[in-house]
Amino acid sequence: MFELSGHIALVTGAGRNTGEGIAKALAAQGAAVAVNDLLPERAEAVSAEIEQAGGKAVAVPFDVTDRDAVLAGVGRATAALSGPIDILVNNAGIPADMGYGPFRDLDPSRWHGPVDINLFGAMNCVHAVIGQMCDAGWGRIVQISSGSARTGSATGLSLYGSAKSGVEGFVRHISQEVAPFGVTANSLALGIMSSAGGPGVAALVKRVPTGRAGSPDDAAAAIVYLVSPEASWMTGQTINLNGGSVTY
Ligand SMILES: NC(=O)c1ccc[n+]([C@@H]2O[C@H](COP(=O)([O-])OP(=O)(O)OC[C@H]3O[C@@H](n4cnc5c(N)ncnc54)[C@H](O)[C@@H]3O)[C@@H](O)[C@H]2O)c1
Q1: Within 6 Å (CB) of ligand 1, which residues are found?
Q2: Ligand 1 pocket: which of 10, 11, 16, 18 to mutate (most atoms <8 Å of CB)?
């Protein structure tokens, strides 16, 4: 089960942490993987590690918020991996400036970062591959989201949470458009991860019922299922993966 040989995946923001774990897990299942990151050295390091482990990968650094760069990067990946991308994991979601803080204090100049990467970044990447997926009659799109999309908090995440809510809505709508073509689209809403930073993180981890933050392997295992041939009836959903932190 969950065999991905013959498939070609693009994982954005895959130069470290969650995205790196996802890229390596997809490669281990047999997919050829285009490893994207904003920082070329990160993408190249992960791609090289996949190749050293016997997998197939290429580094395709680009900024997901730059539509022209996304199109060029998808073109490079398609040429290097000898075929169109049929698995897209939109993982890039943490911008250089997260726009943390109470909304009343946030200058409008800071509103764009989380929205641009999570919403327009996802749209740029989906738009670059969705036509080919529909024409081929098979495709998998997974959006990495966050519990902050559905649960409000006073932790200064209003910009990020609204961007994640927006992209979950986007995925629900496209799932309906592409379902007749054999293409699925889902969101994976993660809880607090081991890569999380910031002063309140230790307290948040303590409140996770399973007693720990999520790891890249936790996320990767769920992604392997969601992009697999076996998940053809799973679409339009937001899957929570959070150690039991939220149960609705
Ligand atoms: N860290 C958490 O606790 C947590 C919780 C819930 C959800 N998430 C989500 O999980 C995903 C991964 O988070 P992470 O903690 O592994 O992030 P991270 O910041 O550790 O790594 C993400 C990578 O994305 C790259 N990146 C940044 N901007 C980019 C851009 N514009 N284009 C391409 N790549 C870009 C970075 O260079 C970095 O290597 C994100 O979507 C995030 O919102 C994280």
Answers
A1: 12-13, 15-19, 36-39, 42, 63-65, 91-95, 117, 121, 144, 146, 190, 192-193, 195-196
A2: 18
Percent of the chain with pLDDT over 70: 99
CA quadruple 79, 81, 83, 84: dihedral sign: negative
Indicate the SS3 state at residue 58.
strand
Which pLDDT band holds residue 200 (cuts at 50, 70, 90)?
Answer: confident
Tokens describing residue 100: 């943390």
State the pLDDT confidence band at 124, using cuts at 50, 70 and 90. Answer: very high
Distance separating alpha carbons of residues 176 and 172, to the nearest angstrom: 7
Shortest-distance atom of ligand 1 to CA 95: 28
Which residues make beta-bridge pairs with 186? 142
Question: Domain spanning 8-241: which superfamily?
Answer: NAD(P)-binding Rossmann-like Domain (3.40.50.720)
Give yes or no for residue 213 having a pLDDT over 80. Answer: yes
Classify strands 139-146 and 8-11 as parallel, antiparallel or unpaired.
Answer: unpaired
What three-state secondary structure class fits 199? coil
User: Whose Cα sits closest to atom 42 in ligand 1?
Assistant: 93
